[in-house]
Amino acid sequence: MLIVETVVRIRREHAGGKAIKAIARDLRLSRKVVRKAIRSPEAAFNYQRKVQPLPRIGPYQDRLDALLEENEGRGRRDRLRMTRIHDLLVREGFDGSYDAVRRYAARWRAARRKDAGEGAPAFIPMTFQPGEAYQFDWSHEDVEIAGKPMRVKVAHMRLCDSRAPYVRAYPREGQEMLFDAHARAFAFFGGVPRRGIYDNMKTAVTAVFTGKERVFNRRFLIMTDHYMVEPTACSPAAGWEKGQVEQQVQTIRGRFFQPRLRFASLAELNGWLEAECRRWAEHHAHPERGDITVAEALDMERPALQPILAPFDGFHESEHAVTGTCLISFDRNRYSVMSTAARRTVQVRSCHRSCNSPQKWALKIP
């Protein structure tokens, strides 16, 4: 492709009466290129390739299309990286480079968006004031506890202004674990923001209506009222509304949980995770204020946080029917209760083993 300066020189010399043959000889160009430069409007000399040759990918194009189509149908967690797709082609005899596969995949996705009438999505960055909000989410990670593989549920919280992270692992996503994660995260941050941003998880949201209208779980509302937090639920399938914690899930998975962690107990794992959150904040710059670290930004945001007035009694409450043999079914187990509760509906309050309640579960007869 000719640069603009060369095209302008060709047009100027030809306008001065110089022959095309002489211009081609002096500039070491073909006469065809010189004629095209002369005829082009306003020095616009752009070459558009009509057919893209694929010398390496050609024999494997159908196979690559099938792999890309299959990959698009997978969930985000299970999608293959381009390096893995290139490796699969190499195993089948492909001798081209990774860059060739990457470029082809980019053109393939652009063609799909064009066929569907979709342009590239546009997003408006969200800004937050100190102490304004935090974002919360769960992730599933594979670890090894006491020599046995285990998939733990990891609670993620992130302050929106300072970007300070907090993560803690639990055996499951029960509501009592949700309450415990909030209590420990607020203690770690040294205060409570004014607003919390969540997805529509069942431990927090009972019913989803049009727009932002939600019916929140009763115990979850009691927890947010205790900490003076205004809960905000994201739109369904709109992860960008809490993009900071979504990005944190991917970052923490790659930096903390890979390769697979091995600990003797969940308590040791959580102690290590909390120390890693502090270390990560001390050694990483704030993404928008590069002159300070995340830990320094947290110190600046901490005075704007609300104080923690008292610990929250984070039990999960549910109603159960007592059988005639004085048994209730709770958490996939059967428990015996006092005979006075036979054939009656009772309230069961369960608590995570690390909460502040003296009892781990209790029975209440209305």
Automatic annotation (TrEMBL):
Gene Ontology terms describing biological process: DNA integration
Cited Pfam families: Mu-transpos_C_2
Positions of the Integrase catalytic domain: 126-319
InterPro entries: Integrase_cat-core, IstA-like_C
NCBIfam families: transpos_IS21 (NF033546)
Protein name: Transposase
Native source species: Sphingobium cloacae
